[in-house]
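Section 3.1: Structural characterization of target chains.
Under the original work plan, the team committed to producing a structural model for every single-chain target entering the pipeline before any wet-lab resources were allocated. The record below documents one such target. The sequence was received from the expression subgroup and is listed exactly as submitted; it comprises 287 residues.
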Amino acid sequence: HYDLPEIKHIDKSDISRLTIKKKGSEIRLKRDNKRWIVSPGNVPADGGKVDKMLSDISGLKLTAVVSESKNYPLYKLDEAHRIEVEAFKGDDSLIKIEIGKPAQSGRHTYIKLGNDQRVFLVSNELRSGFDKTVASLRDRLVMKIVEQINEVRLYDGKRKMTIVRSEAAAPVNVNRGQKAQEAKKPKPQWRTAKGQHVKGAEVEDIINTFSNLLCDEFIAGKTKKDFTSPVYTVSLKGTKTYTISIFKEKNGKYPAVSSESNYPFLISEWKAEKIMKKFDSLVESKK
């Protein structure tokens, strides 16, 4: 029976920095108030993925000593394959581990701890959570809207269309008085600036797509200024204005820029099509 080393308790909230090193690369994560920044690149990180890393580190449980023979390639703990992770509170190192391959069960992982030469088993699958690139750790959220939108402006490269929200009048029921007030609120109506009725479901589709829009990936080596002459632009107006401009499709994806993101990005064809509505298809046909 081997004695397992004691891992001192780490509070998730104490971790302010992480370094993740693989052969030939190093990723740095740093807490910035409520969000995390990933480098190289100094860009916002995906909070959910970082939170999983913090949970994995603070919840480490050693279950067994597996080897003392230093046969590290067997466990993918050799220099070519291991992932070195170190967590810091400010400048103080809280823990340092080397992550090898998952055990056959898929629910355990081979690791090394600090300067200990032995190979341990931990009761968690760690590798997938830390085997990341900067691109895969970036926060892909490029637009988030939580407020009511009252105006939608569309530009398809040639024409402009403004669509305005108007609340439909609630049905008045004199007999039931109070109950009528509690009745289901009618759906808002949408009209063009010229007063034409517009298909509400189509407008809501645009707004819903904007409400939590994730890009497929960011465009490396380019800035927003590099993109001019959009093929389609949408502006949504609440207490502030949210804008996305979409550019000519390339290889099945559309380059785009958002007022809510500092970086140009790509969106898939199906997402672009949910935004780039044909004007004629939006207007209700006269019955």
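The first helix runs from residue 47 to 58.
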